[in-house]
Amino acid sequence: MDCTRSLLRWYRKNARTFPWRIEKPDPYVVLVSETMLQQTQTSRVAEALPKFLERFPTIETLAKATNGDVIRQWKGLGYNSRALRLRDAAKAVVADHGGIIPRSLPLLQSLPGVGPYTSAAFLCFAHNKKVVVLDVNVRRVYSRLMKRQRTTADTETDNTLIPFAESFIPARSAAEWHHAVMDLGATICTARSPACTSCPLAQSCPSNSILINVARAKKREPEFRGDPRRLWRGRFIDVLRRCSPRTELKLSVLFKRAAGSPLLDDEQEWYAATLEQLQTDGFIRLMPKGVRLAD
Question: Does domain 223-293 have CATH number 1.10.10?
Fold first, then answer.
């Protein structure tokens, strides 16, 4: 199709360079990078991935890692629960699949933390399989190309987009195609200010230069001192991550380092509940006299 040829020509001239984009990538590296890339900027992943792979060069070394080992190495990537799910997936691959990451969607999705997106991305980028990979950028590009959208926030449903996307993916270049669509969405067909005049698909796009710019509504999260709880969880983990292994901090010290000010009396209940949940999730260990990062 003309769109496919046009986009691939554009991509070959304008492709972004990342350490996980190589001709024959290691499937383990693909699994790690795709997990990191969930809700994290590519520039941060590009910086963190080599350090992570230096510490855990194989899926076997990752499978043996403790919670604390993985959390420390996940510094700067956010959403720390992904680190533990990735380690748990590595353990399952080693224990149940002989250290070889499965190549079928059902088996991939049986691994901890591996859902429809990660499993499809793994098959596409590790094995060049012709599967539809829908992330936020790809979904936006396909929606605008498929039919005229009214605003920059409008997108079609995945059930509608999947058959549309399948008609474009070249059988022998599925990985390159998806990299191209992702780059187009990240640099040209952006969420707020699409550069339609620079788009290689402009002549075929029904949404070309007609989108009304609107902000997508964000879900309201429970807040503490004006910030969502997830940010506070991350701050507490970051403080403990900077400590030497097995170092215990008093609860009051942890809070002051994370917040920059002491804990108030009416905040004690919130703080205690947050730490209890962090311990339940496997990130920290509450001790008789303080707290430390999990083993």
Answer: yes
